[in-house]
Amino acid sequence: MKQEQIVSYFFVGFFLFVLYQLILIFAPFFAALSWALVLAFAFYPLYQKIGNLPRMNPVLAALSATAIVVLIVVLPAAMILVSLTKEAIELYYQVSSYLRSGDLERLVEQLSQLATTDWAQQLLTMWNPLQRDVSEFVLQGAKGIGNFAAIQLASFTKNLFFWSLNLFLIAFLLFFFFRDGKAIYEFIYQMIPMAKKNKQTLSRKMNETFSAVIRGQFVTSIIQGTLTGLTFWILGLPLPFFFGFLAFLTSMIPLTGAATVWLPFDVYLLATQQFQKGIILLVIGTFAISLSDNLLKPILIGGKTKLPIFLLFLGILGGMRLYGITGIFLGPVMLSLFFVLAKIYREEYQGL
After folding, report:
1. Could you give the CA distance from residue 352 to residue 349 in angstroms, rounded to a whole number?
2. CA pair distance 108, 102, nearest whole angstrom
3. Which has the closest alpha carbon to 218: 288, 295, 301?
4. What is the average per-residue pLDDT within 107-134?
5. Distance CA 237, CA 299 (A)
6. What is the structure's pLDDT at 68?
7. What is the average pLDDT across 157-164?
8. Count of CB atoms within 10 A of residue 184's CB?
9. Is the pLDDT of residue 352 over 90?
10. If residue 308 lies in a helix (H) or strand (E), which one and from where to where?
11. pLDDT tens across 254-274, in order?
């Protein structure tokens, strides 16, 4: 083995060792880093517009953009998270009370009185032997959500200092990502050991995917979740924060979307003869909550991701399980990177 090869292997090995140590060092701050990156990407156009104002330097522009993002996104999101956790705990107690008081059985009786068709009667007949299993499943599900939320709330109370530190870190990192984002991007771009055209393809695909997910999927999901939560609150339905967040998640499900949340409530309201609330929820759910998905996504996303919708959905859910809430963005990006790298491999190494 030549001395040049030994030096090269040593350099690569030592470089990977240092890189691994850096990953370990920054691992405790992964959540803050991820959120700061996502927010910096989403609001970088705002930073550029502020930077183009008269007598505005990069430092002042970064400070202004950071302050705006913290005020309109970070602090409200932290407050919503606390409210969401409390409502998740309350969900368990309400479901437990509902099932143990016999309200579910009374609802089924009301439905049986309203059912006039043969298929509806057969459906209700099939329900009877399944009722106990379904009730137990719902109770255990609500209990699991409540226990998880209780753990998170206890962790939040116990580690309030670290939560505050994370918020500070997000704002701190956001400032530097705004101010030095272009330089950081150029440094990473130049470090990637790939052909220029492949680096350009990777960069373009990541930018397109982030843009599509943030401006399209995330924005439309936020709108649908907000509309659902506001509608529940106005109609006096239970746990508006929790079911608004649930609508935010289910809006990513193909075909059913946010209707997975509001439609069962609408059926319940109509079945219990709360016709005014039921009709209002049906109208808002159909023409505002669910229709906004069909109107906004084509405008905001277009065909940028070029990912099958079921893969995008699984990527978002899997990403959330692996990375937390930031997985909403990181999951689709990893999927896009996989397809781009597969394409590069086929072109460069298989000649296809």
Report:
1. 8
2. 10
3. 301
4. 49
5. 32
6. 92
7. 60
8. 14
9. no
10. none
11. 667 788 888 888 887 887 778
| Mean pLDDT of the chain, nearest integer | 75
What pLDDT band is residue 126 in, cutting at 50, 70 and 90? very low
CB 220 within 8 A of CB 251: yes
The pLDDT assigned to 60 comes to 92
The pLDDT value given to residue 215: 67
Half-sphere exposure (CA, 13 Å, Cβ side) for 21? 6
- Stated as kind and residue range, the H or E segment containing 324 is none
How far apart are the C-alpha atoms of 56 and 39, rounded to whole Å? 21
What is the pTM for the complete model shown?
0.66
Report, in angstroms and rounded to the nearest whole number, the Rg of the chain calculated over CA atoms.
Answer: 25
Q: Residue 110: which of 4, 220, 268, 301 has the closest Cα?
A: 268
Contacts of 73 (CB under 8 A, 6+ apart): 39
Judge whether 29 and 169 are in contact, CB under 8 Å. Answer: yes
Identify which of 306, 326, 285 has the alpha carbon closest to the alpha carbon of residue 40.
326
Q: What angle do CA 17, 21, 24 make, to 5 degrees?
A: 140
Please provide the DSSP assignment of 180-232 as one string: HHHHHHHHHHHHS-S-HHHHHHHHHHHHHHHHIIIIIIIHHHHHHHHHHHHHH
Cα separation, 81 vs 84, in Å, equals 5
More confident of the two residues 25 and 87: 25
Q: What are phi and psi of 194, to 5 degrees?
A: -140, 165
What is the average pLDDT across 106-123? Answer: 51
Q: Look at residues 324, 301, 302 and name the one whose alpha carbon lies nearest to residue 214.
A: 301
Q: On the CB side of 6, how many CA atoms lie within 13 Å of its CA? A: 3
Tokens describing residue 26: 């920054």
Cβ atoms of 251 and 224 within 8 Å: the answer is: yes
- Tokens of residue 55, six digits: 């007598």
Give the dihedral of Cα atoms 285, 84, 66, 185; nearest 10 deg: -80
Q: What's the pLDDT tens digit per position in 11-43?
A: 878 888 888 888 888 888 888 888 888 888 888
